[in-house]
Automatic annotation (TrEMBL):
Cofactor(s) needed by this chain: Zn(2+)
Gene Ontology, cellular component aspect: cytoplasm
Domain (Amidohydrolase-related): residue spans on this chain: 62-441
SUPFAM superfamilies in alphabetical order: Composite domain of metallo-dependent hydrolases (SSF51338), Metallo-dependent hydrolases (SSF51556)
Pfam families xref list: Amidohydro_1
Family according to the record: Belongs to the metallo-dependent hydrolases superfamily. Hydantoinase/dihydropyrimidinase family. Belongs to the metallo-dependent hydrolases superfamily. DHOase family. Class I DHOase subfamily.
Protein's UniProt name: Allantoinase AllB
Entry-linked InterPro entries: Amidohydro-rel, DHOase/Allantoinase_Hydrolase, Dihydroorotase_CS, Metal-dep_hydrolase_composite, Metal_Hydrolase
């Protein structure tokens, strides 16, 4: 809470009045926020607000910092038929997400400074929310890490295990190249996001299961046991300890993965880790198993699901990200699991799912803000500009109506392929208003205005762009 004397100031742009502000440390009832020039300028009791040109009454509503979704695949360039930035970022805005960090496994991949600049040009003016880009650490000796860092990459991404082939499916570097690149990233001061699976074990597991003619989700699950994940986390942890490289483990799926992350962190490594809404929610009796739930790593057991919930509540896992990974209807609808492309969508509905199920997940509202805004912003160098409702921060805000009932169906899913993993799921409490830097971008389930998202360069940015 902070007070400023506004008695002689001109009117500010906007005051949102009398909601319950939730931040990473607690809840603050009867709180108003003032916005001017795209930033918060005051946060406090209604009586302490400046005169405003516009006022929004938020009585009975919760005010949260806009979600920072640090793991999306909007598929540009090269795979726009799966989704693209305008649709993906629109889904984000509708779901209370105001910042996305987009992955580099595109076609071509974002693995050179020239390609990074091309992606910037491609997305400019077409995103509904603010965005940053990862750069790819691909196979072979990495030669452009510094150029990509200077271009403004927010961090790097490496796929240690890859079972798929074709566009969007980069192979891993070998351990020698990975270790050398991590030394360079330590020097550059950028974090490495890691898809942690043991590549050779994944290929071996798939060959074995296919020989046994398994075609269902259980076959897919058994082809990538938890050891595939925990081995990769421990290996990258050893390399991080040796090089000083900061690492982030994406989409932790297994109890053994959590244990590996905790062990590595306790050895002194700067390691953060995320899980995703599908691993927290599934298996779920009401939803059941659907082949379209195929994702790498797989959704596992009730025991794994519960371990991930607990790890998020205790802070052993730092945050939630959607790993929003759209595919076309044809790519998700085969009746053989090996012909269903891995990946699910989630950027639009994750916040309302977390909100509605938070008691079951063991999360307070404040934990939710920590896991959806504060920690991802801090991990990727965006805090306190993002993920924070304090004077000076970008005025990214989501207003949640705690009494609003919802059902996820194709009509409300903003996607090129609205047949998502959670279709039919019901809950209570959902975003009704999303503000990006003080401007309303989504209201009552509809997008407002035109795309106004800005690029968020990483900490090494040496702009202007090459
Ligand atoms: Zn991903």
């Amino acid at each position: 809470m902070s007070r400023v004397d506004f008695s002689e100031s001109p009117a500010v742009d906007l005051v949102i009045e009398n909601g319950t502000l939730v931040d990473a440390v607690g809840e603050h009832p009867n709180t108003s926020v003032a916005v001017d020039g795209g930033r918060f300028v005051a946060v406090g009791p209604p009586g302490a607000m400046p005169v405003a040109e516009r006022r929004i009454d938020a009585s009975g509503m919760y005010l949260l910092p806009g979600m920072v979704d640090a793991h999306v695949h909007f598929r540009e360039p090269g795979m726009e038929y799966k989704e693209g930035f305008p649709v993906g970022s629109g889904a984000a805005a509708l779901g209370g997400v105001t910042t996305v960090l987009d992955m580099p496994n595109t076609e071509p991949p974002t693995d050179t400074a020239v390609r990074f600049a091309e992606k910037l040009d491609l997305v400019r003016g077409r995103s509904w929310v603010d965005y940053g880009f990862y750069a790819l650490l691909g196979p072979g000796e990495a030669t452009e890490l510094e150029g990509l860092a200077d271009s403004g990459a927010v961090g790097f991404k490496v796929f240690l295990g890859q079972s798929e082939q074709g566009p969007g499916c980069p192979l891993p570097p070998d351990d020698g190249d990975l270790h050398a690149a991590m030394g360079e990233l330590a020097r550059l001061g950028l974090r490495l996001a890691v898809h942690a699976e043991n590549h050779a074990m994944v290929l071996h597991g798939i060959a074995k299961v296919k020989a046994g003619r398994g075609t269902g989700l259980e076959a897919h699950r058994s082809s990538r046991p938890p050891l595939v994940e925990s081995e990769a986390i421990r290996r990258v942890g050893l390399f991080a300890a040796d090089t000083g490289c900061a690492v982030h483990i994406v989409h932790v799926s297994a109890a053994e993965g959590v244990a590996a992350a905790v062990t590595v962190r306790s050895s002194g490594v700067d390691l953060t880790a995320e899980t995703c809404p599908h691993y927290l929610l599934l298996p779920d009796e009401a939803i059941g198993e659907r082949l379209r739930h195929r994702v790498n790593p797989p959704i596992r057991t009730l025991g794994d699901r519960d371990a991930l919930r607990k790890a998020l509540a205790t802070g052993d896992l730092q945050f939630v990200a959607s790993d929003h990974a759209p595919h076309s209807p044809a790519e998700k609808s085969a009746n053989d699991v090996w012909r269903v492309r891995p990946g699910v969508i989630g950027v639009q509905h994750q916040l309302q799912i977390l909100w509605s199920r938070r008691d079951e997940f063991g999360l307070s509202r404040s934990d939710l803000v920590r896991a959806t805004a504060f920690e991802p912003a801090r991990t990727w160098g965006l805090w306190p500009r993002k993920g924070s409702v304090t004077p000076g921060a970008d005025a990214d805000l989501v207003v949640i109506d705690p009494n609003r009932p919802w059902t996820i169906d194709e009509d409300v899913t903003h996607s090129a392929n609205p047949e998502g993993p959670f279709a039919g799921l019901r809950g209570t409490g959902a975003p009704v208003l999303t503000l990006l830097r003080g401007s309303v971008v989504a209201k009552g389930g509809r997008l407002v205005g035109s795309p106004s998202g800005n690029w968020l360069p990483g900490s090494r940015w040496r702009g202007p762009r090459p």
